[in-house]
């Protein structure tokens, strides 16, 4: 595998993905380039052949993808681009709706590459968005923390939680504008997307009209 010489310009690479989202060849080459960076920055080759990093982790209602397989979700090209577009659009929509607020995002099931932080954060300022990350897999959350720090994106992250998203009680749940999870291994059969989302908070907003 090639050796990388410097930290990638993720803002440029993410922008390339967003601007060329229908050009499959371009998408594949940019995603492969980023995967290679992340693979090396996390020293993934030290983990990916160990049985414990290839085995799924039991959760309260199913199984969580292993560290290695969670990392490889990144190479699901169409998925990665669609979720990137969705996250960026969701943030912009919330910024429009709450122009004076820092947009708080809870990301359940970040995996070792936390792609919807590492690809998204460089497109904004840390004063605009903040992430809280959670994963049940200790190895994955550890590598996500390491990667985010190496990429100098720690100022975008409020908290890292090692927990089962199905039962975890989120602190200050009303503070979150966006809750996000891509825990869809084997469609809805194995990972517990529905129970996870069911357990996630949603910002309660209410329009209050001034009395006339
Ligand atoms: C399909 S992978 C996606 C990884 C990454 N978010 C991505 O999009 O590339 C799902 C991740 O969610 C985690 N996960 C699955 N079920 C979980 C649960 N109940 N609680 C916490 N994390 C969970 C897995 O450990 C894995 O890292």
Question: What would you note in describing this structure?
Answer:
Helices cover 37% and strands 14% of the residues. The chain is of the alpha/beta class. The strands form two sheets. Strands 5-4-3-6 form a four-stranded parallel sheet. Strands 1-2 form a two-stranded antiparallel sheet. The site of S-adenosylmethionine (SAM) has 26 residues, from strand 4.
The CATH topology annotation reads as: Rossmann fold
Mean pLDDT: 91
The biggest sheet amounts to: 4 strands, parallel
Please indicate the percent range of residues in DSSP E strands (runs of 2 or more).
Answer: 5-15%
Helix share bin: 25-40%
Count of domain modules: 1
Order of helices and strands: HHEEHHEHEHEEH
Number-wise, the strands total 6
| Gyration radius, in Å | 17 Å
Structural class: alpha/beta
Annotated CATH homologous superfamily = Vaccinia Virus protein VP39
Ligand inventory reads: S-adenosylmethionine
């Amino acid at each position: 595998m090639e050796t990388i010489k410097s930290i990638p310009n993720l803002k440029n690479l993410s922008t390339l993905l967003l601007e060329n989202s229908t050009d499959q060849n371009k998408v594949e080459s940019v995603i492969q380039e980023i995967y290679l960076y992340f693979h090396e920055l996390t020293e993934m080759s030290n983990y990916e052949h160990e049985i414990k990093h290839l085995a799924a982790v039991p959760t309260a209602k199913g199984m969580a993808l292993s560290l290695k397989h969670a990392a490889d979700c990144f190479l699901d090209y169409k998925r990665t681009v669609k979720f990137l577009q969705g996250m960026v659009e969701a943030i912009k929509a919330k910024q429009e709706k709450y122009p004076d607020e820092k947009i708080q995002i809870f990301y359940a099931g970040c995996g070792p590459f936390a792609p919807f932080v590492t690809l998204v954060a460089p497109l904004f300022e840390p004063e605009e968005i903040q992430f809280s990350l959670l994963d049940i897999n200790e190895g994955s959350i550890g590598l996500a923390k390491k990667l985010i720090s190496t990429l100098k994106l720690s100022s975008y992250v409020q908290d890292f939680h090692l927990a089962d998203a199905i039962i975890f009680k989120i602190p200050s749940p009303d503070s979150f504008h966006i809750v996000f999870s891509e825990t869809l291994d084997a469609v809805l059969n194995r990972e517990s997307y529905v129970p996870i989302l069911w357990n996630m908070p949603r910002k309660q907003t209410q329009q209050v009209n001034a009395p006339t």
